[in-house]
């Protein structure tokens, strides 16, 4: 299983979504992309996009005050 981390500190949507989509294209089933962000609106948009649009399980963890780590797991059918 592969895992990639994208640093999106200071970046607003849609940049984190576009970067995550690019990384996920190169990954296989059950591989994960982690996005590090400091924008709560980005956190909500990313999770909503990947769970609702693509059906990828996503979770969020606050790793520092005002810093979140979003985990997206690629699931293929």
TrEMBL record:
SUPFAM superfamilies: SirA-like. Gene3D superfamilies: TusA-like domain. Residues 4-74 form the UPF0033 domain. InterPro entries: TusA-like, TusA-like_sf. Pfam families: TusA. This is UPF0033 domain-containing protein.
């Amino acid at each position: 299983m592969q895992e990639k981390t994208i640093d999106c500190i200071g970046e607003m949507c849609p940049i984190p979504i576009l970067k995550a989509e690019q990384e996920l294209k190169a990954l296989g089933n059950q591989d994960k992309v982690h996005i590090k962000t400091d924008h709560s609106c980005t956190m909500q948009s990313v999770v909503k996009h990947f769970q609702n649009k693509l059906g990828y399980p996503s979770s969020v963890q606050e790793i520092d005050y005002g810093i979140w780590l979003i985990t997206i797991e690629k699931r293929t059918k």
